[in-house]
């Protein structure tokens, strides 16, 4: 099976450990174990007491009942039975695609977005069409273009809502138009929902609540600041969940007793985690906006309180060379837009801790002055 290299991951694997000011990432500043375990006010005392007695067997294969119950609360209509725990959202996307896509299937994927959503179906032998997003349309794709791409046998439409790298949220009215088109061919709609807006989050609607053949994938890695525990999930109808169970047994078994316990802790204290992160996002957005107001070589379609953004940089140099020199000379890491096939832009993750963001932006501006 052939597959393209994963552009963003290859870039981060090579450079992220050499960054002093990493403003390339899309997670909202990760929590420490101490921070996570202090959410219940007991500094982990109860957590470790239970865990100390816990056998490190496989635990709950699909995720513990508590985990499933907490996750199902994130949806309007999804029952705990229809939540399956996975190794991150990456594992969830892989599971959905592996279970449903066969050679010759027609798949339409939002582009650019998370590379799994087009290169895994391609590697499985699907015929993949790109549904492009447009900077001059607030990074929305165009419904008329989707209509033109649809075929009577379209098997799946893949979206990333909100989008990585742009931070754009597709609203309910728009998603309903996608669903109406999907219904014409009976296509599944797979939506990677790891980025939820932290302000006015009720604007976000899960595809699993909108469409019978909607599959939502998600995790605790971005909005919930815990990528280290590698816990994600799929949310779908019962029939699709049963199909996923079959494929899941071959690829992962479970996520581990410890990771499940941590995930339950985070989900049970969801309101506190979201309050922490809302504060960070709102504060950092202000800093980011102030920087943009004074930086003539950068412009951006503002992300919608989602932890990733995709500014355009007006520079004469190759963007990869620029990013490597920026890192070597100023210690600042960005992801060049080439990793999303858009060389005019960079991914800028403004949800690092405040001091990293401030110094990172300051140094980026110092570096940009070479072109004045
Ligand atoms: C859209 C999207 N989905 C999934 C992931 C990976 O998520 P996880 O850490 O849960 O596997 C990322 C990470 O960058 C992402 O941007």
From TrEMBL:
Q: Which UniProt keywords apply?
A: Aminotransferase, Transferase
Required cofactor(s): pyridoxal 5'-phosphate
Keyword Ion transport recorded: no
**Which stretches are annotated as coiled coil?**
none
Q: In terms of domain of life, where is this protein from?
A: Bacteria
GO MF entries: transaminase activity
Record flagged with keyword Transmembrane helix: no
| Pfam families, sorted | Aminotran_1_2 (PF00155)
| Enzyme class, UniProt record, top EC level | transferase
Q: Which Gene3D superfamilies match?
A: Aspartate Aminotransferase, domain 1, Type I PLP-dependent aspartate aminotransferase-like (Major domain)
Query: Per the database record, which ranges form the Aminotransferase class I/classII large domain?
Result: 53-364
**Enzyme Commission number(s):** 2.6.1.-
Family according to the record? Belongs to the class-I pyridoxal-phosphate-dependent aminotransferase family.
Q: What is this protein called?
A: Aminotransferase
List the lineage, top down: Bacteria, Bacillati, Bacillota, Bacilli, Lactobacillales
């Amino acid at each position: 099976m052939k597959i393209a290299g994963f552009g963003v991951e290859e870039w981060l694997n090579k450079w992220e450990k050499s960054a002093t000011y990493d403003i390339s990432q899309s997670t909202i500043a990760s929590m420490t174990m101490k921070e996570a375990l202090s959410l219940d006010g007991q500094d982990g005392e109860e957590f470790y007491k239970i865990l100390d007695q816990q056998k490190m067997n496989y635990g709950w294969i699909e995720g513990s009942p508590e985990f499933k119950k907490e996750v199902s609360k994130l949806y309007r209509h999804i029952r705990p039975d229809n939540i399956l725990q996975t190794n991150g959202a990456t594992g969830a996307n892989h599971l959905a695609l592996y279970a449903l896509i066969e050679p010759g299937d027609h798949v339409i994927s939002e582009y650019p977005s998370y590379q799994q959503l087009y290169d895994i179906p391609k590697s499985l032998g699907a015929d993949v069409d790109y549904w492009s997003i447009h900077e001059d349309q607030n990074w929305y794709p165009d419904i008329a273009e989707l209509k033109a791409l649809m075929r009577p046998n379209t098997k799946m439409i893949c979206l990333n809502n909100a989008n990585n790298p742009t931070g754009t949220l597709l609203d309910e009215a728009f998603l309903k138009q996608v669903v109406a088109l999907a219904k014409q061919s009976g296509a599944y709609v797979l939506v990677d929902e790891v980025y939820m807006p932290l302000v006015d989050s009720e604007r976000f609607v899960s595809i699993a609540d909108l469409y019978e053949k909607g599959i939502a994938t998600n995790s605790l890695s971005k909005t919930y600041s815990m990528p280290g525990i590698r816990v994600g999930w799929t949310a779908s109808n019962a029939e699709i969940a049963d199909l996923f169970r079959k494929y899941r047994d071959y690829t992962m078994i479970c996520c581990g007793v410890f990771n499940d316990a941590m995930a339950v802790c985070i989900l049970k204290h969801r309101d506190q985690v979201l309050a922490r992160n809302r504060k960070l996002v709102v504060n950092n957005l202000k800093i980011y906006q102030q920087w943009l107001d004074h930086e003539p070589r950068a412009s951006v379609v503002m992300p919608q309180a989602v932890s990733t953004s995709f500014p355009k940089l007006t520079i004469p140099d190759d963007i990869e060379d620029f990013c490597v020199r920026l890192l070597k000379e100023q210690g600042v890491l960005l992801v060049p837009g080439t990793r999303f096939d858009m060389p005019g832009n960079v991914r800028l993750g403004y949800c690092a801790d405040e001091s990293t963001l401030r110094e990172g932006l300051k140094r980026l501006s110092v570096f940009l002055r070479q072109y004045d």
